[in-house]
Amino acid sequence: MIKVAIAGTGMIAVRAVKALKQIPGYSVCAIYAREHSLDKGRSLASEAGDAIVFTDYEQMLSDCGADFVYIGLVNSAHYGYSKKALEAGYNVICEKPFCVTSKQARELALIALCNGLYIFEAVTTLHFPNFKALKKLIPSLGNIDLVFGIYYQYSSRYDKYLKGEVLPVFDPKLAGGCLMDLNCYLVNLVVGLLGTPESTDYTAEIGFNGIDLAGKVTLSYGKGQGEKRPYRFDPAIILKASKIESSRPSMVSIEGQKGRILIDDSPNFLRHFKLITADGEKEYALNQYEDKMIHEFIDFKEVYEHRDFGTMRKWLHQALVVSKILEIDRSRAGLGF
Fold this sequence. Notes:
Number of strands: 14
Strand content: 15-25%
Strand order of the largest sheet: 8-9-10-7-11-12-13-14
Distance between the termini: 39 Å
Helix content: 25-40%
């Protein structure tokens, strides 16, 4: 039985507990809640079963006896809470985005690797059976010419933002914003399929407090020299996301000389996609669970139980690559974090 301690009581922590309860071999043994969220912590502990609620994070790390600590806090807290857990000898599952800076991400990776610990970034996209099928199908497209992605999701917090009330998702002090919340899924999708880009750029619509409300990431892969790539020339890769409009449905189109893949869904669900070639269309819908977090937790469980450090390092490498891309993009857009 893999015992998990949950750091956080927000929506993502609630979803994590719900997903873990559905997977045999997991149990939630502890909940960390801040004093002002104690009632939420008790409610979540009740939902989890026999979990103990802590309001002191260091005490939880000292007493809970978990195998993993799941970090489901605001973006700016990911690094500090993950580091404390690793230094206390715990394996870590950290919600996306992994860290605010690439230096922080490298430090966490080094601590984990030097101490034989597992650290996973929870990016649902990369663990869906549909994504794994996509990865195998990419070479069948021939040389990739274009990748165009859209992820528009009107935030339920935006109306309050317009009235001057800044909640965490729109707070630059907490590393919020569109890039870190939405576009990171599109970036992870492309990096997972095509590898590390040579360069990146980000143009953003900036709000009154300096946060990015919407934006466009442009990735460049050059000609792929020195690394095996599924293309010959530099494909155009444009990834648009917005937290303030929902005028267009989310989608990703990957176009090559021999065919096209159309994902008619948001990248963090990826419930289905089509392969379109001269021979016709074939639809794929391989995900096994409606709850989008179950696949990633199953993958983490299998890697941990099989002591598969090789796969963990591969996922960690992607986390470091994406962390660097997001850091460069924030700088290009003039974001202050």
